[in-house]
Backbone:
């Protein structure tokens, strides 16, 4: 069986030609449309700024504290307050001892005049007597009482006080009584007429004064 190619008719040729031309026109329109729609990409220069990394903050360096040498603390000793001691003034009394009664002889004969004998006064201020000072009354110390009392003491030949009277008051009953109470127990050097101890009066001044 054989096949024979038939030539296309003029009408078919014009139709094919129109199809080809239409395809070219369509492709051309597509190309134009693509150029119009597609954005143009412009080549822009790429600029890169190199940023330096931030410096890491350094931790603060601790400065060594200055060494302070401990200074030795001097302990101050608090002085112990001393109790005020009354001051005793040494003095002698000019009051003569009472004279012994003179017995007249039975016979009316003139008595011989005895020679004057030296007389020594009674004393209380000798160191070996160790007479203590009167104690300061606590109430008088708190009230700030001060003063000077003068005592009139009758000293017997044995060297003790027969009586203690207040000749001049200190102005405080407590100070006067403290002085009297202490002096009653004192020891004295009795007055002497020649080598004989005799009774006599002696004045004992005592000063009560608070220490500042």
Residues:
């Amino acid at each position: 069986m054989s096949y024979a190619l038939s030539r296309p008719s003029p009408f078919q040729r014009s139709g094919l030609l129109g199809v080809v031309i239409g395809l070219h026109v369509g492709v051309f329109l597509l190309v134009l449309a693509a150029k119009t729609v597609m954005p143009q990409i412009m080549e822009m220069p790429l600029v890169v700024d190199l940023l330096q990394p931030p410096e890491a903050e350094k931790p603060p360096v601790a400065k060594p504290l200055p060494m302070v040498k401990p200074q030795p603390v001097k302990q101050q000793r608090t002085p112990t307050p001393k109790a005020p001691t009354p001051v005793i003034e040494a003095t002698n009394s000019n009051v003569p001892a009472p004279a012994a009664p003179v017995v007249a002889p039975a016979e009316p004969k003139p008595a011989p005049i005895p020679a004057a004998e030296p007389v020594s006064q009674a004393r209380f201020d000798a160191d070996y007597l160790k007479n203590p000072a009167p104690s300061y009354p606590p109430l008088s110390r708190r009230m700030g009482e001060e003063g000077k009392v003068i005592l009139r003491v009758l000293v017997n030949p044995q060297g003790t006080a027969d009586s203690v009277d207040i000749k001049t008051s200190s102005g405080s009953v407590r100070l006067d009584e403290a002085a009297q109470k202490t002096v009653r127990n004192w020891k004295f050097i009795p007055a002497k007429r020649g080598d004989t101890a005799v009774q006599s009066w002696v004045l004992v001044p005592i000063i009560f004064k608070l220490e500042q």
